[in-house]
């Protein structure tokens, strides 16, 4: 990716931008500019209204000029196909307020949600937002106007972690509000009981929604590379514990890997896209993952 584009996508640079609207615009413009030189083949500004050819499509709709340039078959979407009802669901529970250094998980999630909302508006998709912890605290139904985008970005700026998590109740409440099929993007650390996660995600699949889950994690939550004795704080219960980090690392990583394996199994069974994002990772990979999932959406 071009260096000039990448500088707008690195998390440490984004943290210095005070306006979420400016940040979202910079990320999306940098992402689109970088697609021309990126390893992500199949998307560019020209491809925003294309999707890959699948068996059963009318071959007369294949864009042969695009095929000549890329060697891949793409079908140009009609306006009715292109527009998507997108629902952004952002976990703002207290566990999302963690950081081992850099920005918190919630800050990173806010960056990602803002960029996706801006990109959706650029594609004329109707985008809505739900902020939740133990329940849905803020809800904006999907709209495709620029004024609505400003409201959504303002809601993201005002999101503050202040409670524990009740993923199942929150997602069930959102699913009951939106029975018409749409595209759900859940942004959370998914640090809750695995059976609760499964029941929560089932609400959307049973109602026919397409679902993409972005799991936001701090690098230390993956690596657990602490030194000596450390004090761990459960930010949702305020419980504290002193542990020998070196001695506990192997067991922690075993438990963490088991949790991740279960998540992958559940998402596979429910045909849900699942992507793990570290808070020190640039956003271009996440945006490409979003566009890829959107392009696979049918109906």
Concise account of the structure shown:
By secondary structure, this protein is an alpha/beta fold. The protein contains twelve helices and ten strands.
Task: Describe the fold and architecture.
- This protein is α/β, with parallel strands linked by helices and 299 residues long.
- It folds into two domains: 39 residues, no CATH class; 213 residues, von Willebrand factor, type A domain (Rossmann fold, 3-Layer(aba) Sandwich), CATH 3.40.50.
- The protein is built from twelve helices and ten strands.
- It has a six-stranded mixed sheet with strand order 5-4-3-6-7-10, with helices on both faces. The protein has a two-stranded antiparallel sheet with strand order 1-2.
- The radius of gyration is 20 Å and the shape is globular.
Helix content: 40-55%
CATH class of the largest domain: Alpha Beta
**Mean pLDDT, all residues:** 82
Largest sheet: 6 strands, mixed
Through-space gap between termini: 32 Å
Low-confidence stretches: 1-8, 36-47
Topology (SSEs and partners):
Layout: H1 3-6, H2 11-14, H3 20-35, E1 50-52, H4 64-70, E2 74-76, H5 79-82, E3 85-91, H6 105-122, E4 126-132, E5 136-143, H7 146-158, H8 167-177, E6 183-188, H9 194-206, E7 210-217, H10 219-223, E8 229-233, E9 240-244, H11 245-269, E10 273-278, H12 284-296
Parallel strand pairs: 3-4, 3-6, 6-7, 7-10
Antiparallel strand pairs: 1-2, 4-5, 8-9
């Amino acid at each position: 990716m071009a260096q000039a584009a990448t500088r707008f996508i690195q998390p440490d640079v984004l943290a210095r931008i005070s306006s979420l609207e400016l940040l979202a615009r910079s990320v999306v413009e940098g992402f689109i500019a970088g697609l021309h030189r990126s390893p992500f083949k199949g998307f560019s500004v020209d491809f925003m209204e294309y999707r890959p050819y699948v068996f059963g499509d009318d071959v007369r709709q294949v864009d042969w000029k695009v095929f000549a340039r890329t060697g891949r078959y793409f079908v140009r979407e009609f306006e009715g196909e292109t527009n998507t009802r997108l629902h952004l669901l952002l976990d703002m529970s207290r566990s999302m307020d963690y950081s081992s250094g850099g920005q918190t998980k919630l800050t990173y999630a806010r960056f990602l949600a803002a960029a996706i909302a801006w990109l959706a508006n650029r594609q004329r998709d109707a985008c809505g937002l739900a902020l939740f912890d133990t329940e849905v605290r803020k809800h904006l139904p999907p709209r495709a106007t620029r004024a609505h985008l400003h409201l959504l970005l303002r809601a993201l700026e005002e999101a503050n972690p202040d409670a524990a998590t009740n993923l199942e109740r929150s997602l069930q409440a959102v699913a009951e509000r939106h029975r018409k099929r749409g595209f759900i993007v859940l942004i959370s650390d998914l640090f809750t009981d695995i059976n609760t996660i499964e029941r929560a995600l089932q609400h959307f699949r049973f109602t026919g929604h397409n679902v993409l889950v972005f799991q936001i994690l701090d690098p230390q939550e993956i690596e657990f590379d602490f030194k000596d004795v450390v004090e761990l704080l459960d930010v949702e219960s305020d419980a504290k514990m002193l542990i020998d980090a070196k001695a506990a690392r192997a067991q922690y990583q075993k438990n963490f890997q088991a949790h991740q394996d279960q998540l992958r199994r559940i998402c596979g069974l429910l045909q849900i896209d699942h992507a793990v994002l570290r808070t020190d990772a640039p956003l271009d990979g996440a945006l490409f993952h979003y566009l890829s999932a959107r392009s696979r959406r049918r109906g």
